[in-house]
Design brief:
2 copies of one chain form a homodimer. The first copy, chain A, is of the alpha/beta class. Helix content of chain A is 43%, strand content 17%. In chain A, strand 3, helix 8 and strand 4 form a beta-alpha-beta unit. The interface between A and B is large, with 69 and 70 residues. Strand 2 of chain A pairs antiparallel with strand 2 of chain B. The structure holds a DNA duplex (16 and 16 nucleotides).
Chain lengths: 343, 343
DNA sequence: CTGAAAGCGCTTACAG
DNA sequence: CTGAAAGCGCTTACAG
């Protein structure tokens, strides 16, 4: 019969360093040195310890080790968003792939933490600050998330995926400004003169930066920047935004959407109104998600290197943990225009 | 200038329980009792401690706590497969959602561990056995993975997602046998008499169980069980397997594929050969993945409750950690036939 | 090259 | 209700 509440079965009788020392006929210090590959151990002693470890099946207790070394050899990937919504997001999947790739070979483990539905982030913050991890990678989808900054202020090394609106934290982001600019320029080059944009939410860095890039593209071509409608990152929202844009500016001959999801919604609305794409209205999206190729017509869009984002975030954090310097406070990853049929 | 190699910035000067005790004018024992909601603390003392904790911004050091309590309040989700391949797998995404949901409110954190490409599992095993986690959920995609059993033998509470071929470990699985049986019966009811199967790999439990279910369906209807071809879980492999099946048994009027991926490949091969689906050959898949609705014709398939799988695994593990009993060694989740156009 | 000793920050009987 | 003391399993100066 199991002792209720006993969660420590695996430790019951697990050999300690002390027992290894006894079995090998040496001191704890020597065993510790062998385990940590420290210099200054005779071959004879090293072999005896190795044999004892083998025989006893000894595995060092990480809690004890961590208590004195102050390091855990794990880092957190923090998804500052209720987890159930995020997991199926291809953006998140790409970042996770990149983080995993970036971590492999570093000897560090990944702790994935997501907000629970009932959590305001306090529990998460406490967990992260209580010494469970050596550093945190924060991917936060929404606006002014206080978490990254609070973690950083608590002294935890943090790197954010995407520019944090609050600032004060090193981040890695896709070059949304330049990406949007290249989309705008592409439309201009194709001879479009009345170009609108379905911008993302105004309280998100991606929304702000992509809008700024579009605006810049318009000004440098001497075009108007008044045809702006904001939209959430969703197909339905994109369709509605497109409707509003057309109502306000019936003469638009091109649209830059701040996300493929929005662009797909726009395509739907344009089709519903009998506007041909790209003949009547050219459409450019952003992300180069799977949606882009599945859309009809196939979407011209700006590719952002999602996996590379995860990989670079990880590199940046590991470099910081290793004390490397100088280290760039922020890193922008290049985007790339992918021309298909819609523009 | 940062001290190279110093990864412990966050601990520098972090207040300890001792300092809280001093500030509150009580002993460490009392502070500990307050933190752990233990009974037997005067209101006066409790308030003083709470205030001190607030003022100092005290967060308990988990390593120290874990060292004495032998619990970490985190559990591992072990993907016993190189991580880069798995992350985008919708099966994995579903399980992760379920695990997250199952964990929420339990106060436990999730540690996601995946095999690195260069890893044979030894490092992973060591990590899991060194006291980083209280228990492990193992999702292993391939054949006779020794990991779950080894972890269990090392005393770590383990629950596997999918029946492990090696046995000896509690698991949660979809009822693949009954699911395949229902697919077979459906084909029989539709009047099919020459029914083949594109079975999964013979060294995977899902392959074995779904083949067994189909076989049972054939025998109870007095039909032949000779039209069997094995296939990997991939579209291309499914197409090839279908070709082999047709070459060997040109008279088949129905096929049960052990996965939607295989079924989609089969559809492609049937189309290439000019066989109409379902008129000439009916097709049933397994999984009810997004592919099923996207296929032409839409795939009749067996739905397995992926998210529920993750949720149930988590429940089973938490129950075990809590010492609840009796606990079923294994749990099968019901599957459901989803009838669409292909059969 | 090796070991005795102190200490990391907690929890937990135990005594009062 | 409260505190002094032991101890969890390691690492790390320090002395030899």
């Amino acid at each position: 019969m199991t002792d209720p509440g006993d969660v420590a079965v695996e430790q019951r009788g697990a050999p300690t360093l002390e027992e290894v020392a006894k079995a090998a006929g040496v001191s704890r210090s020597t065993v510790s040195r062998v385990i940590n590959d420290a210099p200054g151990v005779s071959r004879r002693a090293r072999e005896a310890v190795t044999r004892a470890i083998e025989t006893l099946g000894y595995v060092p207790n990480e809690a004890a080790r961590s208590l004195v070394t102050r390091r855990t050899n794990s880092i957190a990937l923090v998804v500052s968003e209720p987890g159930d919504r995020v997991v199926t997001d291809p953006f998140f999947a790409g970042v996770l792939r990149g983080v995993h790739a970036g971590l492999s070979g570093s000897g560090r483990q990944l702790v994935l933490t997501m907000l629970a539905e009932d959590d305001d982030g306090a529990r998460l913050e406490k967990y992260l600050c209580s010494g469970h991890v050596d550093g945190a990678l924060v991917v936060s989808m929404h606006g002014e998330d206080p978490l990254p900054r609070r973690l950083a202020e608590a002294g935890l090394p943090v790197v954010t995926g995407g520019r944090p609106l609050t600032g004060g934290v090193p981040y890695v982001d896709a070059d949304n400004f330049t990406g949007a600019l290249s989309a705008a320029r592409h439309l201009v080059e194709r001879g479009r003169r009345r170009i609108g944009t379905l911008a993302g939410p105004g309280d998100m860095a991606v929304g702000i930066d992509r809008l700024a890039g579009w605006r810049r593209g318009m000004s440098e071509a001497g075009l108007a920047t008044d045809a702006v409608v904001h939209s959430d990152f969703a197909v339905e929202a994109g369709a509605e935004a497109m409707a509003r844009l057309l109502d306000a500016h019936p003469d638009v001959d091109a649209v830059f959407a701040a996300a493929d999801l929005i662009a797909v919604g726009a395509l739907r609305e344009l089709a519903a109104r009998g506007r041909r794409v790209p003949d009547d209205v050219a459409v450019v999206g952003f992300d180069d998600s799977v949606l882009a190729t599945m859309a009809t017509p196939a979407l011209t869009t700006v590719r952002q290197p999602v996996e590379e984002l995860g990989r670079t975030m990880t590199w940046r954090l590991l470099a910081q943990l290793a004390g490397e310097e100088p280290l760039p406070p922020s890193i922008l990853l290049p985007t790339e225009l992918v021309v298909r049929d819609s523009a």
